Amino acid sequence: MASAVAGGLFNAFAFAGAGYLFKMFDKNGYAEEAKRHNLAMENLTAEREKYLEEVTDRRNKIAQLRAEIADANRDIKSTNKSLELVRRINELTRKAIPRKPQLSNHYKPSSEMEEYMALFGLIAGGVVGGAAYLML
Length: 136
Known about the structure:
Layout: H1 2-25, H2 29-94, H3 111-135
């Protein structure tokens, strides 16, 4: 910013000094030269405004595209996470459910115990059956 101001001041003094010398040596040419200079300054100002507009538009578009990229990346990460969860759910549903643990898998009664269990079953069945018969 300081260099722009210093450059502008230098150019103004240089033009003013050159204009003074030009005016001293060529009385009629100075007015035309001043007119050409003013027209050039107007053109330069218009071109600078157009340049600043283009640079600002470019920066705004870049910022907008970067924001869209960030949104897309978040969407991609969210989609990838969802797909991973679906994959894990499918993996679990395809596997067979493990068998429920039972005592018979770990304990086998002795033959003597099996006989007593059968005898108890017969006696208990007879008692229940007899009670049912009496109730009817």
